[in-house]
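Exercise: predict the structure of this protein bound to zinc ion.
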Amino acid sequence: MPEVSTALRAEVRSRARLRCEYCLVPEGLTLVPHEIDHIIAAKHGGGSGTDNLALSCTLCNRHKGTDLASIDPETGGLERLFNPRSERWHEHFELSGGKILARTSIGRVTVRLLQLNRLERIAERKAEQNPNLWQRLSRAAAVLKQAGNLDYMELSIAAKAYFVLTRLNGRATLEDVAGMLPKFGWSVSKEQLAKATEFLAKASLVTQT
Ligand SMILES: [Zn+2]
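Solution:
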């Protein structure tokens, strides 16, 4: 990836008002900082000027990678991805609850390729409507990041488990934690939770009972 200067980075961030330009999640409500996306990747001839840069959350950026297009699930035709510089978000998408609905072929390929409606992302978008909760989760994530190298989803799940466990004074079974998570609108599988609590115990952040 070509280097993006600090000044350019700041310009892209403020232009996007710190929101992901694909899924609209504000940076303040995610657990890790947003990234600078090259809309057309360098390997396809895209430049590093502001007209080719967008602010993207970690998840959208990871799923998009260097792709430019995908197959429309409805027509079977090749379609390019949404370009936040040359198009308006609302032309191609609309928000319904925590879900992002596609209005066009471009919307459909983008929703699918960037996995905008994976269940855990819908649950996160709903939970994000409670900024107070997310501030506390972000604080939990900051502690976890010092303790180990987790990817975004693992970090998110571990932060949720940590948050619930601290509310239960650390004395809880996996079932207790699993039972509390849906109260905050979070859906986490037993396996994901087991992995998260194992990490927390290994990092001495909780004592498993
Ligand atoms: Zn996003």
